[in-house]
Amino acid sequence: MPKIKDGKKVLIRVENLKQYFPVKKGTFFSPEHLFVRANEDITLDIYEGETFGLVGESGCGKSTLGRTLLQLYDQTDGRTLYYGRSIEDIAPKYVLETYKNLDREVKELHQLRRKENEDRENYEKLADESEKYKALEKYREIEKKARNKYLDIVELIGGFLVADDFSEISKVLTSQYEVKIQAKEIRDKIRELMIKVEEKKAKGKSTDSDNENIDKLRKELENKDKIIADYETEIINLKTKYKDHPDFEKYESKRDDGINLAKLDEEEMRKLRKDLQLIFQDPYSSLNPRLTVGQIISEGLFAHNMFPKNSEQTQEYILSTMEKCGLAPYFVHRYPHQFSGGQRQRIGIARSVALSPKFIVCDEAVSALDVSIQSQIINLLIDLKEQENLTYLFISHDLSVIRYISDRVGVMYLGNIVELADTEEIFENMMHPYTEALLSAIPTTDAEGTKIEVLEGDIPSPIKPPTGCKFHTRCKYATEICSQVQPQFEEARPGHFVACHHKLNQNN
Ligand SMILES: Nc1ncnc2c1ncn2[C@@H]1O[C@H](COP(=O)(O)OP(=O)(O)OP(=O)(O)O)[C@@H](O)[C@H]1O
């Protein structure tokens, strides 16, 4: 069940996301362990069916964010929740671990809460401004850690969090979940066998034994579902024990069935790969030159057991996907080198779309193409989004493309999203000085002779970024506080988020 916010379904929720890359510096005898802080403290929701545009100067961390959401990197910290499938469907093991170790998990949460309180009191006591700023940063770090831990637990157990003793709760939740994992494995097996049956049918082979196996598995599955329902009754009964606690409802309402992508193991993530796709900038390097178009598109279909090999049904599906992406049917046996850049990008798109994904990261997907071809590919992406109910994270340094395609836009600077709002709101009523500078740097025809403002100064190093607001070294509005305190990313107007001590256009 997808999460609903402001009447819209959330597909991906990112909270306090961090992605650091280690770099070694220093001398041989005293190596200094440093990190490129490519993404820092990113919090955002991506809604089902929207195109979320991401802009910012080169190296600010756009690609890293796209790839981290897809878990192509092991994220350093934070939560990435996916609502496109149910927990039941994937039955990830991390849920079982949480249920099994509830007691320990909740103890860790209490420890973090104590530390958070200590750090807050310490911060409130300090008089010296500079020390106070440092203490505030420290307190905010621990506050985030405690919050993430709290959500990791409460989203899975809800009102049970009020309990003093978790042994009974842990036992019943673990027992039920173990059966859910078994049920999920049976469902996977049935799906695999059904594909096998289709393949055998296409070759004219007998499928009797497979059909028998499928029937057996279906019966087994029915049994498992009954056991799950029995445990559910037990869980409901157990809840009555805690229902009168004053905090029960508060915690119960925090239940959430988003899949925490960062906690999935490789095999679980592999199953979700078909949902979460990436379209690259360079169509040349992303296609295997030794495979024909048909093979390129079918590779994923077979890997994910979506279609039987050698069947007419599969061929028809491949041809219809090609047609949707503007590729003629006779291209099916051709190799990538026989196509132009735009056509190759269409092949890359067809390969992704064939998997019926839910979310696609388009990383500079049109940047390598001629301008005339760019608009064809952008329009193809828009059409596909409507037809297939897709959701895009559209990364581009080209502001006019972003404005054209995006429903909402996030502006990144040195690893942080500094502003986020509806597209027109960003372009007409930007509140962050960086957005203002970025937008005024758009090359425009300067007919009235107005000065075109270009962002001055080099981008600071993401290894040792400036303290406080990272943009303060280049910001014309910066004051003392900007160099000391990192501004909070807050909702300044409905749906308009910004992290700045001196927000622009506040009265618009
Ligand atoms: N795998 C990696 N290992 C180490 N550092 C990396 C890695 N990937 C990216 N970085 C660094 O992280 C920072 C953000 O890079 P990223 O490619 O995400 O930026 P970008 O905004 O997409 O830039 P561009 O528009 O130039 O692609 C850069 O400093 C980059 O050098």
Layout: helices, strands, pairs:
Layout: E1 3-5, E2 8-26, E3 31-47, E4 51-55, H1 62-69, E5 77-82, H2 87-90, H3 93-100, H4 102-125, H5 129-157, H6 167-202, H7 208-240, H8 248-252, E6 259-260, H9 266-272, E7 276-279, H10 293-303, H11 312-324, H12 341-353, E8 359-363, H13 371-388, E9 391-395, H14 399-405, E10 408-413, E11 416-422, H15 423-429, H16 433-440, H17 480-484, E12 490-493, E13 496-498
Parallel strand pairs: 4-9, 4-10, 7-8, 8-9
Antiparallel strand pairs: 1-2, 2-3, 2-5, 5-6, 10-11, 11-13, 12-13
The protein binds adenosine-5'-triphosphate (ATP).
Compact description:
This protein is α/β, with parallel strands linked by helices and 508 residues long. The chain is 46% helix and 17% strand. It has helices at 62-69, 87-90, 93-100, 102-125, 129-157, 167-202, 208-240, 248-252, 266-272, 293-303, 312-324, 341-353, 371-388, 399-405, 423-429, 433-440, 480-484; strands at 3-5, 8-26, 31-47, 51-55, 77-82, 259-260, 276-279, 359-363, 391-395, 408-413, 416-422, 490-493, 496-498.
Core attributes:
8-stranded mixed sheet, 508 residues, alpha/beta, globular, 46% helix, 5-stranded antiparallel sheet, binds adenosine-5'-triphosphate, 17 helices, single chain, 13 strands
CA-based gyration radius: 26 Å
Helical stretch tally: 17
Coarse morphology: globular
Helix content: 40-55%
Q: Tell me the quaternary state.
A: single chain
**Structural class based on helices, strands and sheet pairing:** alpha/beta
**Average of the residue pLDDT scores:** 91
Number of strands: 13
The stretches of 5 or more residues where confidence is low (pLDDT under 50) are none
Bound molecules: adenosine-5'-triphosphate
Q: What's the story with the biggest beta sheet?
A: 8 strands, mixed
